[in-house]
Structures are given as structure tokens and as C-alpha cells.
């Protein structure tokens, strides 16, 4: 069982750190407030997707649950919040070398 609850109110969206799929996906650095842990949330607005795209998204999310590879981050939670699909993944930070 995931330690991340599938409830939008448990997450504080901080900043946008990326976009994808023709700007239909927005990636936010987010704070998971119950634990104070930083995660990323991919937000996908369902209102702008066609029925065909929603079906594709459902298949992708389902197949992604079964992937296991060192170069991919598993989904910690996936749920609907305010007409958006929210996909929660761990936030992996790195240090930039001093210049």
C-alpha cells in the first residue's frame, strides 16, 4: 500500500518544473503535507482531452503500473482532483556542482 493518499488536499503545489505532451501535462514540484515530503505531480487536464485521448491515457496508466526498471520512477498514487488526473511520483533531486 502506498504511503501517499489519493486526496488533492494532502498536496501543496509549489512550482511548475516541466511540461509535456504538447503542454497537456504539467509537472509540479509538490509538498506532501502529511509527511512534509517533496514529490512531483503530473497534472493532466481531462476537460481538454478528447474521448480517444482519455482512453489512451487510461491504457498508459494501467500498463505503467506493471513496469519495473531502474531508470523509471513508479507511480506512488494516481487519482482525479479538480477535473485533472494527478500522478504522484517521488522527487529525485541532484546537486549542481559549484562554479
Describe this structure in words.
The protein is mostly beta strands and 99 residues long. The protein has one helix spanning 51-64, and strands at 11-20, 25-32, 37-45, 75-81, 84-90. The chain has a 5-stranded antiparallel beta sheet, with no helix packed on it. β1 (11-20) and β2 form a beta hairpin. The chain is globular, with a radius of gyration of 14 Å. The mean pLDDT is 87.
Condensed summary:
This protein has 99 residues and is mainly beta. The protein contains one helix and five strands; from the N terminus they run E-E-E-H-E-E.
Show the helix and strand layout.
Layout: E1 11-20, E2 25-32, E3 37-45, H1 51-64, E4 75-81, E5 84-90
Antiparallel strand pairs: 1-2, 2-3, 3-5, 4-5
Pick out its properties:
99 residues, mainly beta, 5-stranded antiparallel β-sheet, 1 helix, 5 strands, 14% helix, globular, cytoplasm
Task: Tell me the total number of β-strands.
Answer: 5
Percentage of residues assigned to helices: 10-25%
Strand order of the largest sheet: 1-2-3-5-4
Order of helices and strands: EEEHEE
Radius of gyration: 14 Å
- Give the amount of beta strand, in percent: 35-45%
Uncertain stretches = none
Silhouette: globular
Tally of DSSP helical segments: 1
For the termini, the CA-CA separation is 43 Å
Amino acid at each position: 500500500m502506498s504511503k501517499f493518499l489519493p486526496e488533492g488536499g494532502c498536496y501543496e503545489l509549489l512550482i511548475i518544473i516541466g511540461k509535456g505532451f504538447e503542454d497537456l501535462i504539467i509537472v509540479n514540484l509538490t509538498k506532501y503535507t502529511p509527511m512534509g515530503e517533496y514529490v512531483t505531480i503530473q497534472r493532466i487536464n481531462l476537460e481538454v482531452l478528447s474521448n480517444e485521448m482519455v482512453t489512451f491515457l487510461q491504457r498508459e496508466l494501467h500498463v505503467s503500473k506493471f513496469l519495473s526498471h531502474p531508470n523509471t520512477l513508479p507511480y506512488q498514487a494516481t487519482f482525479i482532483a479538480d477535473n485533472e488526473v494527478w500522478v504522484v511520483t517521488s522527487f529525485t533531486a541532484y546537486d549542481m556542482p559549484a562554479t
